[in-house]
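TICKET: design request
STATUS: open
ATTACHED STRUCTURE:
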């Protein structure tokens, strides 16, 4: 598109092969060379910035070769200015204007084309695609970039809420959920339970089988717990080898059955594939009560119950009184 706008606006005689050859090389050869240079560069962004300064220099040179004809000159200079603004903001755009001025000065000194403000129908027709399609392409690229950034933002937000090893919610997210729930005074909270779950003798697994085996054991435990709860419930990794489960709208008898199933599925057994054990669980649970007026208090009650389960011999469920 830039080739048409410039070529039609070059003053006679058009058989000046130097300018025409430079225009052809710039419009049809240079883009491929610039792309290849950026792709092979150790610092592609820096290389692309230099490439874009070459573009702005060329825009100034060809504007001078056209005799600074206002409409086509403004078209090509605006085109590279939009690129520079998108690439590096106002400061980089001003650097581009300096390169444009250098290109224009070179054209004026070497070619000496007289100022030409005549505008023909052919020039208007040649400039229209550049005026219409190029801003649309810039807008479309900006739109795609915004979509990609939004996707990355959502991914980062999800990563900040989850534990990278198990895929469960992390402690910060769990505390946020529990804080909001307690402050919201949801009617279902009266029949709900918070449990802290400790993996028994987890250090022995790490010492005997290695930390990779320990990681796999935690992943197995996470999968077991997730399989035992409903969609409305919450399972999170509380830290290290501890997990936390929130069962919503669940009576104590039903909660005891859920936690008992978790313990049953996590009995020590050799995996047929890798021979790594699945450890037992000590579970301390606390039903919601007036004593649990804050999320921290509720967690503390579950924590005390968990230590009672461990003192009672591990691999068991204990409810806070």
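STATUS: resolved
RESOLUTION: sequence designed for all positions
ATTACHED SEQUENCE:
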């Amino acid at each position: 598109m830039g080739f048409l706008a410039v070529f039609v606006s070059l003053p006679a005689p058009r058989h000046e092969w130097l300018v025409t050859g430079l225009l052809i090389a710039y419009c049809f050869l240079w883009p491929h060379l610039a792309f290849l240079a950026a792709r092979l560069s150790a610092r592609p962004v820096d290389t692309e910035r230099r490439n874009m300064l070459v573009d702005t220099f060329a825009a100034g040179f060809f504007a001078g070769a056209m005799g600074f004809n206002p409409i086509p000159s403004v078209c090509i200079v605006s085109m590279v200015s939009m690129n520079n603004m998108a690439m590096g903001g106002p400061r980089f755009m001003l650097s581009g204007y300096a390169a444009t001025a250098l290109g224009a000065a070179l054209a004026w000194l070497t070619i000496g084309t007289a100022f030409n403000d005549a505008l023909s129908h052919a020039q208007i027709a040649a400039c229209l695609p550049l005026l219409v399609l190029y801003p649309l392409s810039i807008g479309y690229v900006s739109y795609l970039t915004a979509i990609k950034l939004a996707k990355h933002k959502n991914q980062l937000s999800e990563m900040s809420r989850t534990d990278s090893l198990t895929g469960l919610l992390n402690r910060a997210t769990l505390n946020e959920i529990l804080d909001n729930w307690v402050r919201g005074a949801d009617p279902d909270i009266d029949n709900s339970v918070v449990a802290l779950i400790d993996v028994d003798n987890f250090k022995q697994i790490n010492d005997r089988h290695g930390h990779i085996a320990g990681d796999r054991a935690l992943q197995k435990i996470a999968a077991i717990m997730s399989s035992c709860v409903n969609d409305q419930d919450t399972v999170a990794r509380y830290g290290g080898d501890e997990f936390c489960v929130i069962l919503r709208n669940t009576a104590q008898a039903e909660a005891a059955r859920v936690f008992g199933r978790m313990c049953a599925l996590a009995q020590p057994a050799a995996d047929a594939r890798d021979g790594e054990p699945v450890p037992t669980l000590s579970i301390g649970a606390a039903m919601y009560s007036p004593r649990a007026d804050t999320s921290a208090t509720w967690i503390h009650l579950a924590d005390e119950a968990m230590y009672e389960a461990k003192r009672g011999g591990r691999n068991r469920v204990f409810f806070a009184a």
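CLOSING REMARK: Residues 70-110 form the longest helix (41 residues). The two ends are 79 Å apart (CA to CA).
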